[in-house]
């Protein structure tokens, strides 16, 4: 009996030893990497964040600044927004991988990847703070590294100081690394992308300096950028646009291309947009809107926008119903939104464009914040750049001529004449047109300038006030309640109508 027990013990030991010797090999999945490089993270961050920009423009950005309006399910248009967590989730979800790129690039001294990551960090946090105000910034993304699971909220002024410092540093270190950038689906990667990332860093600096210009003197910083373009390169043409080019085949097509036609057609061209472009005989109107299906007389080509902020019944019945209201243009449309189907990759995912930069510089020069260049030249450059942008991407089969006539620039509504306020109004209105489908940027800019006029619709549910921020996500109350409460006490009531720091 003892012999049998002894033999059994030996066999058991052999089995255990055998299993132990192979444990690591058996449990090591060769298809799941334990380490990753910056290029593999970069492509995903760019795709996710830019697509999120497009979707936020569609759902709220275009609506709140009255580029588009709704004919059904009109809550967004009436400012009954409820909880909107898309920006928060996008920024903080993607910032984990941006921080991973920063950590990897820092550890391996890859300054080119580090510079790119600092630009993306700045852009993402700018979206978050412009949307919500005070946000977790200094403590953000420190859960894994430092065990910070309840990050404090920094003031918006602190966030902006960090954004501007990171963009300046990015410009300085880009090009000082030996590594070639891969995974760069925005600018194509390689050595040629470095100058484009530097131009984006400095152009974004101009955007954000202008954003805070009502709260802080930014003249010196703006002039520094404009005075030394070798040291601080900025966008010089549409070739420098930070605009993601989509693919003709799934899954990297225009994000709205796969939308249901019913969902897409809830959104129509706004009366504000159609009327303003019609008054200027603006050839971009057919890019943004389609002719109504039931014109006032047979054979007429008519564009009719719907007023923003109508209730469900008046919105659905406006001008005789949906066939009397212009749909959003084919360049932005979904697969089943027209016959024949729209081209799947006409439009771009926009981060920032040369046209926007020129309008910012026109405003800065008109206000005397910079001394370089001519406000009129910057202004006209911005208009022409936006026309040229659409001329280059709108397919010839759409039959749209986006070339403005010479008279376009001399008419009273466009010519750079009048008082300073009238000139600023023209700059702001043209920039508003150029920011169509650029995330929430048109809303951010309108909140700062008040240009153009945005009037709440007749059936709005916000006491005739246009919203100026998103409330914080509700789960912050339970997950990070103390820090959120501190931010609300400092900033003001957590609702749609409390302005952020730069807007006060």
UniProtKB/TrEMBL annotation:
Q: Quote the InterPro entries the UniProt record gives.
A: SusD-like_2, TPR-like_helical_dom_sf
Tell me which Pfam families the record gives: SusD-like_2
Instruction: Specify residue ranges for compositional bias: Polar residues.
Output: 475-496
User: Per its UniProt entry, which superkingdom is the organism in?
Assistant: Bacteria
- The segment annotated Disordered runs over 474-504
- Protein's recorded name: SusD/RagB family nutrient-binding outer membrane lipoprotein
């Amino acid at each position: 009996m003892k012999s049998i027990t002894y033999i059994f013990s030996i066999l058991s030991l052999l089995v255990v030893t055998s299993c132990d010797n192979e444990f690591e090999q058996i449990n090591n999945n060769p298809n799941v990497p334990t380490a990753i490089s910056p290029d593999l993270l970069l492509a995903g961050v760019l795709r996710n964040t830019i697509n999120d920009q497009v979707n936020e423009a569609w759902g709220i950005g275009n609506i709140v600044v009255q580029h588009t309006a709704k004919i059904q399910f009109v809550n967004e248009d009436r400012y009954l927004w409820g909880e909107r967590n898309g920006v928060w989730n996008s920024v903080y979800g993607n910032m984990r991988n941006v921080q991973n790129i920063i950590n990897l690039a820092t550890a391996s001294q890859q300054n080119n990847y580090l510079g790119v990551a600092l630009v993306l960090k700045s852009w993402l946090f700018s979206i978050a703070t412009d949307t919500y105000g005070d946000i977790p910034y200094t403590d953000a993304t420190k859960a894994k590294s430092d065990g910070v699971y309840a990050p404090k909220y920094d003031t918006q002024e602190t966030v902006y100081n960090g954004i501007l410092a990171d963009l300046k540093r990015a410009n300085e270190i880009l090009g000082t690394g030996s590594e070639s950038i891969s995974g760069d689906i925005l600018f194509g990667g390689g050595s040629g992308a470095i100058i484009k990332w530097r131009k984006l860093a400095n152009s974004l600096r101009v955007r954000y300096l202008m954003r805070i210009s009502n709260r802080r003197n930014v003249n010196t910083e703006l002039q520094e950028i404009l005075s030394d373009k070798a040291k601080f390169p900025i966008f010089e043409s549409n070739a420098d646009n930070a605009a993601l080019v989509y693919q003709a085949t799934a899954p990297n097509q225009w994000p709205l291309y796969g939308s249901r036609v019913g969902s897409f057609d809830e959104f129509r061209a706004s009366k504000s947009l159609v009327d303003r472009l019609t008054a200027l005989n603006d050839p971009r109107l057919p890019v943004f809107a389609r002719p109504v299906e039931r014109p006032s007389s047979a054979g007429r080509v008519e564009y009719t926008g719907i007023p923003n902020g109508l209730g469900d019944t008046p919105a659905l019945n406006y001008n005789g119903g949906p066939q009397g209201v212009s749909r959003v243009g084919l360049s932005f449309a979904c697969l089943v939104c027209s016959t024949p189907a729209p081209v799947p990759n006409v439009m771009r995912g926009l981060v920032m464009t040369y046209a926007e930069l020129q309008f910012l510089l026109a405003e800065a020069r008109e206000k005397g914040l910079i001394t370089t260049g001519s406000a009129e030249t910057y202004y006209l450059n911005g208009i022409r750049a936006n026309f040229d942008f659409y001329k280059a991407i709108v397919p010839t089969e759409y039959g749209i001529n986006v070339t403005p006539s010479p008279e376009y620039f001399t008419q009273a509504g466009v010519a750079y004449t009048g008082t300073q306020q009238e000139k600023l109004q023209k700059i702001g209105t043209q920039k508003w047109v150029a920011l169509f489908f650029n995330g929430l940027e048109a809303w951010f800019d309108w909140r700062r300038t008040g240009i153009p006029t945005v009037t709440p619709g007749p059936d709005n549910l916000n006491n005739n006030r246009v919203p100026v921020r998103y409330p914080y996500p509700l789960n912050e109350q339970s997950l990070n309640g103390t820090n959120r409460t501190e931010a609300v006490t400092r900033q003001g009531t957590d609702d749609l109508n409390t302005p952020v720091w730069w807007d006060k």
